[in-house]
Amino acid sequence: MPFLSDQALERLRNLEIAPDLSGTRYSLGEFIARGGMGAVYLAEDRKLSRRVAIKVLDAADPGGQRADRLEQEARILAELEHPGIVPVHELGRLADGRVFYAMKFVEGARLDQFLARLPSLSERLRLVLRICDAVAFAHSRGILHRDLKPANIMVGAFGEVLVMDWGLGKVLPRPSRQSRAGDVAPGGDSEDGLVVGTPGFMSPEQTAGSSSALDERSDIFSLGRLLEFAVKFPVGGRSAGLPLSRPLRAICDRATTPDRALRYPAVRALSEDISRYLDGAPVSAHRENWGERFLRFYRRYQPAILLIAAYLLMRTLFVIYSRR
Amino acid sequence: MPSENAPIAGGNFPLTRWSMVAAVRSDDPAERARALDRLCDAYWKPVYKYIRLKYSKAPDEAQDLTQGFFAEVLERDLLSRFDPAKSRLRTYMRLCADSFVLNEIKHAGRQKRGGDAVHLALDYSAAENELDKQTIDPATIASPEKFEEFFEKEWIRSLFSSAVEDLRQLCNTREKEAAFALFESYDLAGNNVSYSQLAEARGISVSDVTNQLAWARREFRRFAQDRLRAVCSTEEEFSREAKALFGGKL
Fold it and tell me: Is B210 an 8 Å CB contact of chain A?
């Protein structure tokens, strides 16, 4: 009888839920990742000869709640046509009754893996801005992500940033807009008392389980934590990441303050502050003293200031020597 | 799905589902022996390794205790007291093993078993080899809870190993050795290779790799479930055990 290592046991436990895709247009490929409701596999779309990712429920789910949730996730993805959100191709059921959906297969690295080889602060901040863009778009469609964390951000081979795993997505009611055919129905785990999210990245109101009280500012809290994570994550081989300057610290603090009323009111406001920081302009979250203002001014216009200083120095020297 | 009485590949006997616990108490000696065989098949290695590590017993002593434990299960009809509503069978077996070993330690001078006692032909050297490969330091298993986890993991290892062996024999019978080789290389050894690398190395297409692996995995799953069913006494217990075995996901 073969001896199975601990690693083999874990793989076999994962295998147990490998779906049978016969009856679909897909051929099963490698296991990619596991989420709260199911697993994601690489698959080949035989009709179009392309690789896709298939997310499939772990069980047939006779109660139907998890199936409803996965269907909701697929519909959310279909609603959110944005370069920063992975597109969905098909929603269906396997022969054994399990719900699945097929989406674009993203080749790239998880956020933390990508940050490990990204030493530049400005590039890290631009990456966070692209995450903010995708989340702001979702908010404009009345959808909260509720589980923004490094494991749910992928960076593609050409630097494209994709926000993944909308399984905990919540559709907010939109009284101001008439519903259209095909709109995703408001919902998600709206039961109060149910904690959804990931510790360390979810807002205090999520931790408290007050699901009905969640709004865009809950995602803003997670974005603040992601911003801090992106700056502080160490570059490969080093023990520490980049330091958080006072303005950046203030941006993170405002995004993650426990009192929602004091957070940024919208993702756009958070993005604008990060952009202002990148441009060397003052940020709304931080009141500068004279020294900081001078330093920022100096950093922003450093080449011009150095050029003028060099010119003045040369003029001064010229005057001094010409008088001798 | 296989029929309920389908023979298990590898020469095992057909057992009606849910009947193993009852069969161990059957009046028919042949049926009783087969059921005990199945019970031992699933539990002897976890019990042996558990006794070796938890009670720091030398191999020969642990072998005696393992033999003695399974003899006691049969002689004292311990399974008649098992209530699936109260606990899982493997928890019950572990607690029985604890109780048996502690009792044996207490009566250390008691005469060794012999005569009519049940004697099982168990490959202890294989279990010892596995312990060597695992390189477990008993000192790192500090709490009773950790020993429970250890027993649980060994039980899963035992069940999956049997299912892999069933799969190997099925592949031999159906001349699907290539599918087993893929399963062994990709899923058991965990060689960090892609399907396309596997296909290239074997001179077959990627879809062949996908299909053969999918078939082998389905068959492995069927064998694992069959073996699990065979050591469960009710549908509910099977469902519970399966959820625990597959990490709450089935």
Answer: yes
Of residues B70, B9, B18, B24, the one with CA closest to residue B43: B70
Q: Which residue in B249, B242, B239 sits closest to A36, CA to CA?
A: B249
Q: Which fold has domain A6-104?
A: Phosphorylase Kinase; domain 1 (3.30.200)
Q: Measured between CB atoms, does A49 come within 8 Å of chain B?
A: no
What is the fold of A111-279? Transferase(Phosphotransferase); domain 1 (1.10.510)
What's the CA gap between A48 and A27, in Å, rounded?
A: 12
Q: Is B130's Cβ below 8 Å from some Cβ in A?
A: yes
SS3 (DSSP) at B200: helix
Give the ipTM.
0.74
Q: What is the pLDDT tens value at each position of chain B, 250 positions in all?
A: 333 333 333 334 333 344 566 676 677 777 777 777 778 888 888 898 888 888 888 888 888 888 888 888 877 778 777 777 777 778 888 889 998 988 888 776 555 555 455 566 677 777 777 777 665 655 555 566 678 888 888 888 888 999 999 999 999 999 899 999 999 988 888 776 777 788 888 998 877 887 788 789 888 988 998 888 877 777 777 877 777 676 544 4
Give the nearest partner residue to B190 out of A11, A44, A59, using CB atoms: A11
Tell me which residues of A are annotated as active site: 147
What's the gap in Å between the CA of A19 and the closest CA on chain B? 9
What is the value of pTM for the model shown?
Answer: 0.61
**Is there a contact between A4 and B188 if contact means CB atoms under 8 Å apart?**
yes
Domain boundaries, chain A: 6-104, 111-279, 290-323
Helix, coil or strand: residue A274: helix
